[in-house]
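Researcher: Here's the sequence for the chain we discussed earlier.
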Amino acid sequence: MLPKKFRDWLAQFRNHYITYSNGFFHLPYNGKSPETLVDSLKGLPFVKYSPLTQGISTSTPLMEGGLYYRKLEEGCWLTYSRMRYKANVAFDLFFDEDSVSDCYHLSLNYVDNNTRAYGKLLNGYRVLAKYSWTLFKPRCVDCHLNFKGDDGKFITLFFTEAWLQQNLMSSPQFIDAGLARFVESSSEGFMVWPLAEQDARLESYAYFEKLMNVDGQAQGCDPLQLKASALNLIFAFLSTCSAHDDVMEGVVAVDHDDRGKLQRVENYLSNNLYGKFPGLDFLAEEFDISHNRLKGEFKQLFGKPVYQYYQDRQMQLARAMLKNRDVLVKSVALKLGYQNLSKFSSAFKKVHGVLPSELN
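Model: Thanks. This is the structure I predict for it:
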């Protein structure tokens, strides 16, 4: 049962776009082009649209924040969005049945999420890592989940097939990054590259907020500087791709049914961090997925092999537990299934770079 204030508030918009299912408020947006994206969002009944600042803002019981956009040149747009979520919100990307879209989406993402509390609601949809790159092919249908308490920031470049061919396909950096294989492949889906929190390019958020005059403190936007900064963003993405031997490893083309099973595997692991790793055979049987698909597709979806993902989550929990100076390292090790203290310390150092005894 929904809280009464949400039921009363939602009643105003029954004839509009918002729906509610599986614990999420669903908001659709049209992905045919940046123009249709802006039009579909500004058409919602709870947003304010300013053509002067080229921004869309909202403050409701669901979320608070805005999206700002600039057309850099024909075939290429830049958007910056930031949002704080007061409820579970899903953005459903859709396309008109009779429309033709050739627009790619390249995005630098920051999502501070609380998926552990809502893991059972995932149902196979996409939940981003805290920091990541994503590259979507044209007409790639997607649903992006945001959880109550989340904060999100996205710097996104939209570019058409014609712009891609004219500006990127012949670039040595694009070729060296191996992205031509992704563009020319028949693979559907999108590409994801998680980023470490210390990555220098993550400073881009504050820079683009100022550059796009998000808070209205500057006199205006410098079009030339915007174009140069957008190109630098592209080169940063190409650099990330070039650092990997096979760029196609970052492509998420997992079957939707398998994606739901893998999300349930991830949810099970994240909620059962005490004790020993349950094993691949158990997980494959418990969640009705083949051993090989579990190994290959879990890494594709979450960026790490199953055991490494589980161990990293355990060590994150261990660090949080050890912040209490009254807790003994040996006690934490035993709770996490480590009978050998030296093996626990080694696993802890592998993730955090220091031994548990060296924590300040």
